[in-house]
Amino acid sequence: MIVGAEVLVLSHRLSRPRLFGTGSNVTRDSVVVRLEDDDGRVGWGETYLVPGSVHAVREMTGALMGREPDAAAAALSAEPALHRWALGAVSMALDDLRARRLGVAVSALYGDRQRERVRAYASSGGYVEGVSPEASWREEATARWGDGFRAMKLRIGRYPVADEVLAMERLVATAPDMIWMADGNGAYSLEESLWLGRALDALGFRWLEEPLPTDDYAAYASLARDLAIPLAGGEILESVGDAEPFLRAGSFDLVQPDVSICGGIGGVLEIAVAATGAGRFAVPHACNGAISLAATLQLLAVLPVPAGAPSWAEPILEHDVGENPIRTGLLATPLKLDDGWVTIPNGPGLGVEVDEEGLRRLVA
Is the dihedral of CA 59, 62, 68, 69 positive or negative? Predict the structure, then answer.
């Protein structure tokens, strides 16, 4: 049974502000769940620090005390009205603990593995104050290539669209031979998004992500119909019920559910099934720390892909590369990248071991 539950808020002050097309941040923060059973096994979960998430996680974990992990997981999955971001962390920790008790990887709780490794793409750290996008993108692409990445997503939208397209044209012509994607961070109008999407399609980009404001995913449907480049989005959708109307409307070619946001691995898989039913595809979003990254890898091990799916719908790991010790300093043995690919851990639970001393140094 579960005899211990701890909720930890981790925070790191960045050495410089992280700049995006429509905003910035000066810290990296996570809410981490630690569950322990009566045999001393520990399960870990993680979510984003958003309003209400800490209180909701504490309420959920408090209710787990004295319960068997399997029964607790079943009870939580039957309560869709719970705070979904908090549920993501608690479900993740329960999965980790349940799988460790069985001596299997978390992926085994959800079905047979479909793959043992996945490609990873570097999700850009953002703009650098005082440095042109072209210069910072080229420097970052060169560094990420050296780290072993062979795919990269640029964060765009801070400067005039024509200027950034020209910078991307030069980047693609001179940088290492990456698979390229772009994330508009909701910075563009419909007219700008059409122009941008056509330009990126001509450059061979794999997808264009969330160019329009994300408070109106319905507006994406007409854009998706008018663009040849795949349109990706939906990372803040919290459930299959939230996602289905936009999938039926054709708002996305690729929907991007996040294990921390939509209630855990099960929530992502529900959205993936709905995407297939609507003739669309699911590729997960991940932009947090090492624990959620490990959970996303377990999800990718079992993520279904319909026969005949296009190459741009391949299961691929979003690997944020911004400054973040919550990602880089939490694991006893870091995840390894080999010529663009990450092997999915097959050890018990999430397949990774948390360095608790390193984690507790980051407690806010």
Answer: positive
Residues 257 and 279 placed together within one structural domain of the fold: yes
Residues 88, 259: Cα–Cα separation, whole Å: 6
Residue-wise pLDDT tens digits, 216-239:
999 999 999 999 999 999 999 999
Which of 2-11, 76-85, 198-207 shows the lowest per-residue confidence on average (mean pLDDT)? Answer: 76-85
Asked if 155 and 183 count as a contact pair (C-beta separation under 8 A), the reply is: yes
Q: Provide the domain limits for residue 198.
A: 109-343
Q: What pLDDT shows up at residue 96?
A: 98
End-to-end alpha-carbon separation of the chain, Å? 29
- Read off the tokens for 173: 């012509």
- Who's near 228: CB < 8 A, 6+ residues apart? 197, 198, 201
Q: Are residues 187 and 320 in the same domain?
A: yes
The one-letter code for the residue type at 42 is: V
Q: Position of tokens 């974990």?
A: 61
pLDDT at residue 38 greater than cutoff 90: yes
Residue 74: partners with Cβ closer than 8 Å, 6 or more residues away: none
Kindly report the backbone phi and psi dihedral angles of residue 213, in degrees, each rounded to the nearest multiple of 5, phi listed first: -55, 140
* Percentage, residues of the chain above pLDDT 90: 94
Based on the domain organization, do 133 and 69 belong to the same domain?
A: no
Q: Is pTM, for the whole model, over 0.90?
A: yes
Q: Residue 82: its pLDDT value, please?
A: 81
